[in-house]
Design brief:
It is built from 24 helices and 13 strands. The protein has 566 residues and is of the alpha/beta class. Helix 12 packs parallel to helix 22. The longest helix is centred in the C-terminal third of the chain and has 22 residues.
């Protein structure tokens, strides 16, 4: 029987108390203890030798080199605790093609993150139910995920995967911008006198003027990411430009809570027409519509791309490389990208995510798994407070310290050495996400932030002179202060509302994606005189979709989530 995701979930915002964080955990452990000291297995037996085993793990979202987890410092410690190593394979090429091959052959890795193809994996029955395994071997999973279990259940009442965004303890906002923004090289703002940029026209003019003044550099004014499922980096901006957060295919009215699509509205037309204008002036990279993800990231690190829209988490590898270069040579700070809260006409932005729970992405154990019990024990062991410290902070005395008040921090020397190569070797790159974990916005029972970047002391210590200068120029202490505070949205994110594979709403999304991927390149690359004609062709094709039914279904689901939150 195909595994279908549950329609109609509970409230998206649920806070787990600090007291709850201590249950089923080592109550005596402190951040000042060695990060290598947690229990050796889910049962807490630290003396009995454990037979070593390697499981396969496919990651369909992250861009990184394939690796055995025990080749990293974190992974080796976890292997010493559990006897388990994972051989991680990262996606290369098209996600749907890769997943389709697995389904056709009925051969899967032991565990996997299918990301945007998760509905296909569920429909194929590729994930096993986790309920009995969690009951038998998952005390920490129950502690961390328990308040979310009803949201995680499929239509048959079972749980098939573990999401990543559950908040434990108090919610801490991110001082960085890991969500959406319009980005521009810092040198552009410096040369322009650090202007306040809040409108799309002002942003485009900023880029245009800089490129014109630097004709000898062969610069690219703008690029956009369109590869595979990441196409949303090109289709989402009209939503943000109107002052709304990333609710996927819809904008939810804050008063009526009606969900309306925007893919064929004047807002999308205005966005694409602006890109068309940039293209006609030679300021847009035409290859954006054929480049893959790796090529996109390579261009961002080439120093040639002046600006773009994207989500901080999505181009994080490129930004990290640019920041590492700036640490070694302060002159390279010019090429680090700076986030701007751009909207169409300067209206209040909503780029920062409100607290939410994404329940349609996660890690599952497949029907091909050799020993599901060992895997779930490993995943449960990850969810001790101590191992969350290990995954995010590292090892006391090596990658963090604790002051006499119990506050965790990093020294300047530790911050300086934690660059991208260090992240890979130590394992931060592989363990900071894409496993069952505490959301980065979580807190530990003692009040410390789970993620170093959320700890005010660490964020401030981690700022380079270039960071401090540009933040000072804009009169803020954190990047998030450049943006408006998020409004409460109990349904957020609506794109996380599960949809059954083969349902009317899932088919609508598939067809909508096909149409936008066909016409957006035509609209952006058309001669300006032909834009209206192509837009008419696009809207004619879009009008054949049953958008009203999709909007009604989404509205109904949003209102269920609102009711459940009261």
């Amino acid at each position: 029987m195909a595994k279908k995701l549950l329609l109609g979930c509970l409230a998206a915002v649920m806070i787990i108390t600090s007291a709850c964080s201590n249950k089923n955990n080592d109550a005596d452990a402190k951040p000042s203890d060695s990060a290598g000291s947690p229990q050796a297995s889910a049962s807490g037996d630290t003396t009995k030798p454990v037979e070593k085993v390697t499981f396969s793990y496919f990651n369909g979202v992250a861009a990184a080199k394939d690796i055995n987890t025990n080749e990293t410092t974190i992974g080796k410690i976890l292997e010493d605790q559990t006897g388990v190593n994972f051989k991680i394979e990262h996606l290369v090429g098209d996600l749907n093609t890769k997943i389709g091959t697995m389904i056709a052959s009925n051969a899967y890795p032991d565990v996997m993150i299918p990301d945007a193809a998760i509905d296909k994996i569920l429909d194929a029955g590729a994930f096993i139910a986790l309920d009995d395994l969690i009951e038998q071997h998952g005390p920490n999973i129950k502690r961390v995920y328990g308040p979310y279990f009803n949201q995680m259940k499929a239509a048959d009442g079972k749980i098939y995967f573990l999401p990543f965004s559950n908040v434990v303890g108090e919610y801490i906002p991110d001082p960085n911008i890991n969500q959406g923004a319009f980005w521009v090289q810092r040198r552009v703002l410096k040369e322009a006198g650090y202007p306040k940029i809040t409108t799309l026209d002002a942003y485009m003019d900023l880029i245009k003027n800089f490129v014109e003044k630097h004709k000898d550099e062969d610069l690219t004014g703008m690029v956009t990411l369109t590869h595979d499922w990441r196409f949303f980096a090109t289709s989402n901006p009209p939503n943000h430009l109107q002052g709304y957060p990333n609710d996927g295919n819809v904008i939810v009215d804050m008063t009526t809570h009606e969900a309306k699509t925007y893919a064929a509205t004047d807002a999308t037309k205005r966005w694409l027409q602006k890109l068309n204008d940039m293209n006609s002036q030679g300021l847009f990279d035409k290859a954006s519509f054929v480049d893959n993800y790796d090529q996109y990231l390579a261009k961002l690190t080439s120093h040639k791309v002046v600006g773009f829209f994207d989500y901080g988490w999505q181009f994080g590898n490129a930004q990290a490389a640019l920041k590492d270069a700036a640490k070694a040579d302060p002159a390279q700070d010019d090429f680090v990208y700076f986030p701007l809260p751009v909207t169409f006409d300067g209206q209040k932005d909503q780029y920062l995510d409100p607290p939410g729970f994404v329940k349609n992405r996660g890690m599952g154990i497949t029907v091909s798994a050799k020993d599901p019990a060992r895997i779930i024990q490993y995943l449960d062991n990850l969810l001790t407070d101590e191992n969350q410290v290990l995954q995010k902070w590292g090892i006391k005395g090596e990658t963090f310290e604790v002051d006499d008040k119990g506050r965790m921090y990093r020294t300047a020397e530790q911050i300086a050495k934690i660059d991208e190569p260090f992240n890979e070797k130590f394992g931060f790159k592989y363990y900071s996400w894409n496993w069952p974990l505490y959301s980065p916005n979580s807190t530990l029972p003692d009040g410390n932030a789970v993620a170093p970047g959320m700890q005010p002391e660490v964020f401030q210590m981690g700022l380079t002179d270039g960071d401090k200068l540009i933040l000072e120029k804009y009169g803020v202490k954190t990047y998030s202060e450049m943006f408006a505070a998020p409004d409460a949205r109990p349904w957020y994110p609506s794109w996380g509302i599960p949809k059954e594979q083969g349902s009317a709403q899932q088919i609508w999304e598939t067809k909508k994606d096909e149409i936008t991927k066909k016409y957006f390149p035509k609209l952006v690359l058309a001669k300006p005189a032909d834009f209206e004609k192509v837009w008419t062709e696009y809207t004619d094709a879009f009008s054949k979709l049953d958008t009203a039914a999709y909007e009604k279904w989404t509205t109904d689901e949003v209102k269920k989530l609102i009711d459940a939150s009261k």
